Amino acid sequence: MDGTTLPIQPEIDFCENDRHGVYRAIFERRDVRGQFKPDPVEDDKLARLITAAHYAPSVGFMQPWDFMVVKQQEVKQKVHDLFKTAHNEAADMFEEERRETYRSLKLEGILESPVNLVITCDRSRSGPVVVGRTHQKTMDLYSSVCAVQNLWLAARAEGLGVGWVSIFNEKAVKEVLGIPKNITVIAYLCIGYVSHFYQKPELEMANWRERLAIEDILHFDQWGQSEQNSLTQTLKDQQAAAQEGRFLSEIL
To answer: Which residue range or ranges hold the Nitroreductase domain (predicted)?
Structure first.
């Protein structure tokens, strides 16, 4: 033996409380917009979120992400100005009956949240040939989204809210933040403590869109082929419980 200490092999199973915590983070995660509090986010807590994001899975272990922390109010204001421009443009894209509803929605918390965080993707990080990306070239982008989800779930577990802002011109944002042209912006996130989390996603509560019935998006063996079996029924029952807030208490 060379004296090297090997990491402890992870346990196969989670204990009941840990398993419950994972599902709670999933079902109680929300896209936060208007309920941010001004309280600062502690550095150790923010560090845990970024670390969780960095430990996301990535194609070919290329780890294509970078993280940019934005706290200066003048920088946030420039990004917010870009959002306002894009937001007005977007409103005109909707049919008239939905246009006013769209304008009434609070879709970002750039200025209110104490921390903004940008997650990017460097598509050249591992060279031209990457294990697992040889035939699906977009796998690096998907990997970076996994980092976003890791951070989002960790934030919920830490009692922090996250809002993903996507309504702005990427080129303009890159210019404001000095991001190189070859880097892809994946997510602009608003992070902070919140006054509350909504019971359901805000757009669902605003009747913008309903949660799709899971049996309508389930296929067996061939696209469009459905089956009425025990899995289908179990999924329907679990979705009903989730919609009524009973999943954590009755299903787990």
So the answer is: 27-193
Q: Are 107 and 166 in contact (CB under 8 A)?
A: no
User: What are the structural domains of the chain?
Assistant: 16-209 (3.40.109.10), 211-252 (no CATH)
Q: Residue 187: beta bridge partners?
A: 119
Both tokens of 20, joined, read 């419950």
Whether pTM > 0.85 for this model: the answer is: yes
Nearest partner of 203 among 84, 97, 116, 104, judged by Cα: 104
Closest CA to 28 of 214, 159, 186, 140: 159
pLDDT of residue 163: 98
DSSP string, the chain: ---PPPPPPPPSS--HHHHHHHHHHHHH--B--S-B--PPPPHHHHHHHHHHHHTS--GGG---EEEEEE--HHHHHHHHHHHHHHHHHHHTTS-HHHHHHHHHS----TTTSSEEEEEEEETTTT-S--TT-SS-TTHHHHHHHHHHHHHHHHHHHTTEEEEEE--S-HHHHHHHHT--TTEEEEEEEEEEEBS---SS-HHHHTTS-PPPPGGGG--BSBTT----SHHHHHHHHHHHHHHTT-IIIII-
> Rounded CA gap, 215 and 237, in Å?
11
